[in-house]
Amino acid sequence: MANDIPRRPLHAIDFRDWNRRWLKDALILLGALFLLRVETQAAGSGPGTTPTGHEPRPPNILLIVSDDQAWTDYGFMGHPVLRTPNLDRLASRSLCFTRGYVPSSLCCPSLASLITGRFPHQQGVVCNDPPRPTGMPQAEFYRSEAFRSGRARLSSFLEQVPTLPRLLQDRGYLSFQSGKWWQNDFTKGGFTHGMTRGDRHGDAGLEIGRRTLKPIEDFVTAAEQAGRPWLVWYAPMLPHDPHTPPDRFLDRHRATNPSLPVARYHAMVEWFDETCGQLLGFLEQRGSDRHMIVVYLADNGWITDPQTGRYAARSKQSPYDGGVRTPILVGWPGHIEPRRDDVHPVSSLDVLPTLLRMVGTPVPAGLPGQDLLDRRAVRRRQAVFGECFTHDAVDLDRPESGLRWRWIVDGSWKLIVPAPWNEPGGRVELYRVSTDPLELEDLADREPRRVRRLRETLEGWWNPTP
Fold first, then answer.
1. Band of the pLDDT at 55, cuts 50, 70, 90?
2. What is the 8-class DSSP label of residue 56?
3. What is the mean pLDDT of residues 355-366?
4. What is the pLDDT of residue 13?
5. Structural domains of the chain sorted by starting position, each given as residue range(s) with its CATH number in brackets
6. Helix (H) or strand (E) holding 141
7. Quick one: which of 364, 366, 330 has its CA closest to 347?
8. What's 184-199 look like in SS3?
9. Is a pLDDT exceeding 80 seen at residue 20?
10. Is 419 helix (H, G, I), strand (E, B) or coil?
11. CA gyration radius for the chain?
12. Predicted structure pTM score
């Protein structure tokens, strides 16, 4: 099976060309922002106003997305070993939903759904990679025209729907992409600035977090000097493999964990947390945090196989909570009351409409997400849904062709329904996740009425055919 591994080790990526491109892009950006600043000052606008001077400048937005991290793997979620002080602090200052879900347990479609507010089958990006010709080895496929044209096709899907950066441009936002980004050039997602130009995982964007935060710092500094609100997409390839943590984290876990692969993963989680603290610290030093919304979630789950170091069953690429569950944090000092919600399931599809309403931008009609700040809407929602597809697409024109499972979380209950055309040996499964969070006891045979009711709700949401 194809897997989610870069074609080259991270240390082998040549960032010299990126450095030249970044310098060129930075000079262009600084020049444009200098002219904008001059125009703004000439119009008499202060730093807290829009160029018209009639209304306050919208809040900045920092969107933090960890990569391949289990919903259990945080101090604030009760992990007995991991130390995540920076995310713990963020959780204590945020609206914290511990029962968050992403619609897909695969990086590329999960990120595409986050930025569009649409399920994978609605926006078209359902897979990590396009269809691979029969018999073609994976390494050859990544070098082929079939791969390049397929990735271009996947990227084009995001140009056909509104995305968060495009919608924020109407409010004067500049936006910056860093880290994981599968959709070729960052502009495909509507970002005004960014690091990724075309490689599968994110090419130069993958330097962020693992090597430096300076590109984000430079962007924020320039945007604020111009009096422009900003969106930063911080999606470093952390704790995603390669699990190559600094020794200061690995040494502690090596001494306490009998499995070196698990120790490496735990160390990566703590390294990621450190980078979040460094980024938040930079913004606090600038005073940017006083006028900034921070959202955090993971793109999908991960459980380390203690022998191989790869992902274990019931985690990434699966419909179980180990693959699709994540805490979701939304914080804004002085505007959002910190509160922890351990009861109501929510979705990463809620992030886009929540942010748009917070900054006063119209929400596109027909989106499935809810405003997370609307307590009544969160309580009233009947269920959250998701869908898992094959790693490589089967047919880009028919998203349902690659479907493996659909699932629904309704209160305490979760139903998983396999697609027989891709999971012929699968069976319908039912779990009471409120008392069985690891989904160890399948209750489908004991609860046939509940299975029927949940399946009717699931099929009312989306009932595809092959």
1. low
2. B
3. 97
4. 33
5. 59-382 (3.40.720.10)
6. helix 138-142
7. 330
8. CCHHHHCCCEECCCCC
9. no
10. coil
11. 22
12. 0.89
Helix (H) / strand (E) element for 455: namely: helix 448-461
Q: Rank 26-35, 55-64, 339-348 by mean pLDDT and report only the highest.
A: 339-348
Contact residues for 8 (Cβ-Cβ < 8 A; gap 6+): none
Residue-level length of the chain: 466
Across the strands, what pairs with 233?
63, 177
Confidence of residue 256 (pLDDT cuts 50, 70, 90): confident
Closest by CA position to 15, among listed 139, 276, 196: 196
Side-chain-facing half-sphere of 149: CA atoms under 13 Å: 6
Element (H, E) at 86: helix 85-92
- 3-state SS, residue 201: coil
Residue 158 to residue 124: CA distance in whole angstroms: 8
Alpha carbon distances (Å) from 85 to 90, 387, 393:
9, 33, 39
Question: What DSSP character marks residue 445?
Answer: T
Summary count for the chain: helices (H), strands (E): 14, 13
d(CA 302, CA 376): 32
Total Cβ atoms within 10 A of residue 44? 10
Look up residue 86 and give its two tokens: 């920076």
